[in-house]
Specification:
elongated; 344 residues
Length: 344
């Protein structure tokens, strides 16, 4: 069969040089195969041409059957691709890296609610995560894994040994490193196709609104009420939806605030800071190690739903998770007409 393969390669190469269409080149090879098969059937076994071609009739028929099977498979695959709904098609990519991305996000693409168009939205989205601690760790990891194109993270703290019980994005080797740079290293190692913007500083009123303007969605995982008020006010002023969550020992809560779309804002639900000692910090009251992972993963889920306009989110609702008793409940939230941020 070496002679046949040589002639087939020569025909293909000649067609390539002459810029002959691929279909015409395949037709020439098919005609060559038919001619060879005719020699095998018509000519006697001791004919010099038949001996030069080599192989038996059975082997040549098997080669033809294999080629037919490959052709049928490719046609069937093309037919299946043509039946994919337009909104679920993945945008055409030309580089090897983009093909790797398509394979990486395949489980999203096959989800009817997300599809190729939803994954494209994630790739084009810009999300700012405030805090790279207990809640920020799983949020950042899952948003990076999901293929959110640009992820900003702002935090003024450094990695400490006491963080590692629950802040799983950091490692022992990065103790003393600013959390935003530690998180950046982990996210880029997990997914080199995302852009990470680290801001090693405290979020203040002076910079909040200008910073928020660069992003589509804000996620707040901080543990200070004053910072939460700052985040809420800036999110409302810039019209950015805010996904906010909080933890306390065995319990976590999460909601999406979008007062510009008619929902309450964070200040509607928590108009005043808690009295001193009423809500102890994690350092004072402790916190279950996996709890930030559970609630932080919920934040990532809600973020993906917001960005892809999928499902029913937590706008105007708060989900409360009690890890100690394995219970979850959802409560409705209402706007306050006298809210200093969004009231009136």
């Amino acid at each position: 069969m070496i002679l046949f393969l040589t002639l087939a390669a020569a025909l293909w190469g000649l067609g390539y040089l002459l810029k002959t269409p691929r279909s015409a080149r395949w037709l020439m090879i098919l005609l060559l195969y038919v001619a060879v098969l005719g020699v095998q059937v018509v000519f006697p076994d001791d004919h010099p041409l038949k001996l030069a071609l080599g192989g038996s009739k059975a082997e040549w028929f098997a080669l033809g059957a294999l080629g037919l099977a490959v052709w049928a498979y490719s046609r069937g695959l093309r037919a299946l691709r043509s039946r994919v709904r337009p909104e679920n098609r993945v945008p055409e990519q030309s580089t090897k890296a983009s093909e790797t991305e398509i394979e990486r996000y395949a489980r999203h693409v096959v989800l009817r609610e997300i599809g190729g168009q939803g994954q494209k939205r994630l790739r084009e989205a810009k999300v700012l995560v405030i805090g790279a601690g207990g809640l920020g760790s799983p949020v950042l990891q899952y948003l990076a894994a999901a293929g959110v194109g640009t992820i900003g993270v702002i935090d003024d703290d450094v990695v400490a040994n006491s963080n590692l019980q629950r802040q799983v994005i950091h490692t022992d080797a990065r103790i003393g490193m600013p959390k935003v740079f530690s998180a950046q290293a982990a996210m880029e190692a997990q997914n080199p196709y995302v852009t990470v913007r680290p801001y090693h500083r405290l979020l203040t009123e002076e910079i909040a609104e200008e910073l928020f303007q660069d992003y589509d969605l804000i996620l707040d995982g901080t543990d200070g009420v004053e910072v939460r008020y700052t985040v809420n006010a800036a999110a409302h002023a810039t019209g950015r939806p805010l996904i906010s969550a909080a933890l306390s020992q065995w319990e976590g809560q999460i909601s999406t605030y979008a007062p510009n779309d008619g929902t309450p804002c964070y200040r509607c639900i928590f108009p005043e800071p808690n009295a001193p000692g009423l809500a102890p910090s994690c350092a004072e009251g402790g916190v279950l190690g996996p709890l930030p992972g559970v609630v932080g993963a919920m934040m990532a889920v809600e973020a993906i739903k917001e960005l892809t306009d999928t499902g029913e989110g937590l706008r105007g609702r708060m989900l409360i998770y009690d890890a100690l008793y394995g219970e979850s409940r959802v409560i409705a939230l209402k706007r306050r007409p006298d809210c200093p941020v969004c009231g009136g």
